[in-house]
Amino acid sequence: MNGRRPVLAVVGATGVVGQTLVSMLPTRPDVWGEVRLLASGHSQGATMQALGQELPVQELAEANFDDVDVCILSVPIDVARTWAPIIARAGTVVIDNSGAHTVNPTVPLVVPEINPDAARGEGGRIIASPGGTTLLMANTLATLHEVWHLREVVAATYQAVSDAGVRGVHRLYDETAELAGNRGVGQTPGDVRRFVSDIDGRSPFPAPVAFNVIPWVGGPGDGRWSSTELRAREEVRAILGEPDLRMATTCVQVPVTTAHSASLHLSFERRLTRADAVRALTERSNSVVVLDDPLRQEWPTPVDVVGTDPVFVGRVRQPGDFPRALELFVCVDNLRKGSALNMIQLAELVAS
């Protein structure tokens, strides 16, 4: 970088994750000499506040990456597949969270608190940031795995509609507004679908999301497991360095605006106690906060963790029938630590 302060480009700046990322920059270390905001052509001409400045949103074009040191891509998978190699060839380090490079062994998959050294290196290259489902679990799993060694992970996730971007959030609001004035709706088969069928615009979800849960998140995957479920398994295995870890995930879309949750059943090679597990999560990880006092109704919920950066853990239990297992509930803001914050941390690692 020849002694100058590095330049950061944010592609997808006008999306829900991009907006979250840009809004977080003033709270982070003062690293960047310049920030450039880019998006698709329809956002060209817009402006956004970034680091105290009103910056124009530029079109995604090769010329706009001149002298850019680090580029964060927060774009759909097809856009990432096209643009990540182009940007990297120009000497820019690309950080991508689309999942386009999940199974590419030459692309490091990095969570800064777990494997930061994998993000360091010279020259233009691509670094993958895990998906929100993985980041919901990864720090908790890594902390416990380091001490007791994981054998099995069985997860049920409850995922916020902001995973589907602005369209997902608007769809939940629109469906809720349509249904809220109709007391008794949801009491007979098909009535929710009838009420929401007249809402303008195509839903990003395969079923009504208000007053409902949908046992499928992501693309078609292999036809039995969704793309989100398959991606989480591959990414957790890669981050922990355990390619044979037994893992099964069921991803459920729930009517929550922001913040993912998960119920985890974890099996270990060594016996452990609840107290030791809580101590490890409290003392060994700087990103995990344990909030677990059921008698006082203290446990993490999405409406309580939204807008925060830690991974919150509660309902830590050891089943009497499973002396090498734990049950716990985790919750994280999917737009912050579940996406934007991890990419910012990676960009800072690269720039340091």
TrEMBL record:
BP-aspect Gene Ontology terms: amino acid biosynthetic process
Record-linked InterPro entries: NAD(P)-bd_dom_sf, Semialdehyde_DH_NAD-bd, Semialdhyde_DH_dimer_dom
GO MF: NAD binding; oxidoreductase activity, acting on the aldehyde or oxo group of donors, NAD or NADP as acceptor; protein dimerization activity
Annotated ranges, domain Semialdehyde dehydrogenase NAD-binding: 7-122
The organism's place on the tree of life at top rank: Bacteria
Gene3D superfamilies: Dihydrodipicolinate Reductase, domain 2 (3.30.360.10), NAD(P)-binding Rossmann-like Domain (3.40.50.720)
Pfam entry (one): Semialdhyde_dh
Family classification: Belongs to the aspartate-semialdehyde dehydrogenase family.
NCBIfam families according to UniProt: PRK14874.1
Name used for this protein in its record: Aspartate semialdehyde dehydrogenase
